[in-house]
Amino acid sequence: MRCLRYEIGQGDALIWQRQPRELRGWRYFALFATPVACGMAYAATEEFLALGARLTAAAGAGIAVFLLAQVLFQLADRRAARRQVPTQQEATLEIWGDHLCETRGGITRNFTPELNRQVVLTPHHLFIEDAGGLLILPLTAFEDRPDMERFAAHWDGLARDAQP
To answer: Which residues cross the membrane (predicted)?
Structure first.
């Protein structure tokens, strides 16, 4: 058994929230809000503005909606990060041959290859997501970057072998 000790905080969880992923729900709707706002502003000003002013109004409406969507995305990401890691916490990860056992904030969670959804390696973090939750491992938990990469490759291999 190998044991890793590290600290994680909301900033670590926020990095996970900002990873590229498929748009769903209201985020998917927000993707179309900008061109819809442009079209609505253009159509609404048809009777009383010249073409140049209509185009300017449409562009302004599009920019305003785009910026509002970005602010909402940022707020949602921060709220989700706070839910994942409410405060700066010390964590311990026990690495057993066939599973991982993380203790953080007084709660112990197990991660098994069979339930693994994805292993995501970033420059300073390793994220392991399974059906039960998310494991956030900062680079500081490992000896160095190659150690983190080897661990990620090993765990990803175990997860692939466990899939039917």
So the answer is: 26-45, 51-73
